[in-house]
Structures are given as C-alpha cells and as structure tokens.
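Attaching the record inline, Q. Sequence:
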Amino acid sequence: MDAILRQFRTYLPASLVRVRPTLKKVLRSLGEARDLDVALLELDAFSGELSEADKANLEPLKQHLRSERARARTRMLRLLDSSAVQKDFDKLRLELAEPSDATEAPGGPALQVVPALIRARYKKVRKGANGLTPDSPTEAYHAVRGSVKKLRYVLESVAVIFGKPASGMVRSLRRWQEKLGMQQDADVAGRRLQALAAVPQKGLPPETLFLMGRFAAHYADCASKARKRHPRAYRKVRGRWKALKSKLEDVAPRVAPLPSSGP
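Structure, as predicted:
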C-alpha cells in the first residue's frame, strides 16, 4: 500500500497520500517482529543439524530471541491498536470505499502515464544491477532490491492492462526479490548476532556464544549462496523485459493524447 501511494501520489487524492506516515510507522513495527520471526525459523533449521548437547547449549539464544520477539510483538500490537492508527485506517477505508469521480475514459490516462513510469523504474533497476559485482557490499544489493520492489509493485498494479508480458515480468521480479531478500535477511541476522556477542546478555554461557559464531558462519554461507543465484535471476528479468517493452511500444501509438486543460 505504501509503495502504491508513493509511486502514484501525483495521480491520487491528497487525502489518501496523507496516510503514508502512519503506514510507515506500521511497516517499521511489522518489520521488527518479522525479522525476529525469520531469525527463530532459521535458528530452528540450524539447530536441526546439531548434536543434542549443542542443541541444549543453543537454548539460551532461542530464549533470548523469543523474548525479543515477544517485546517486538507487544510494541507492534500496541501501535496497531492505538487510536491514532485506527483513526487513519478508518479514514483510508472510507476513502477507498467512495466511488471514483474520474471523468476520463477508463484506461486512457493509465495507458499514457504508466508505460513511462515502468520504463523509468526498469532503467533504475538495470543501472543498479549492472553495477553489482560479487564483491559489492550488501548495502548495494539491498538498494537494488528496493528498486526491484518498486518496479514489481507498479507492474502488479497494472498487470491486468498489459496482460501476460506484465504478469511474467512480475513473477521473475518476485523470484529475484526473494533471492536478494535472503541475502538481506542473513546480513540483518548476522549483525544482530555480532552485536549480541559484543555485549553478551546475562544467561548466555560461553558454550552458547561459541555456537553463535557457528550460526553467524551459517548466515554468511546462506548469503553467499543467495548472491551466486543473483545473476541468473537478473538474466530472467532482462529476458522478460523484452516482451514487456514490446507490449508497451504496441500500446503507445494507440493512446490518444489527453485534452489540454488550458483555454
């Protein structure tokens, strides 16, 4: 929702766009809880490969992450249940329920505006992806992931207009985004472990700290594997772009220009 409001803000009622600060707060709150959910799932997978003794030594870390998740969920629910958020969500719901008062012919304005937006988004994705190397920092890959998400959300909003080329592109972008996301998740989790090891919490014995080092190495391995799958996912997207670009060019000549708003 936030991505749609951001990318189409020029063409949307101001009352809709004004809800974005609330959405951003909710996104941050959801993200904190989600990151810890992912960390616990990955920890369960990692512990499945350990001996019974090592599993027992890993339990203090699990308890710590569960406590962190419980606190994050409490903050999340408190925010979602707050009167300010509920008020803004009610406004958003009522606004979306109102019938559109657009007077233009259906499809006309979108077919004029969206192709240029799609091309601009793809150009940014391509520029960022072409600059990536196996040695690029995680932040560079994360920036490309952000551009991929923006392009994907635009296409998801208008895929019904452009048919199979758009739908195929969305699928490839989603897979690529997942590969980039695995790398980001591993980096976030690795940083969390490093910070925890630097200032150990009470209840984390040396045996647990040692296993945390192995767990961090596991994350680094996951990130490395995800990075190796990036080039293939990018090639898939470039291949899909050829069909979508052709579709955009086919549509453009048939779109009549909007009437001038001047005298």
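The chain has two domains: 1-97, 107-253. Residues 29 and 262 are 46 Å apart (CA to CA).

More tomorrow.
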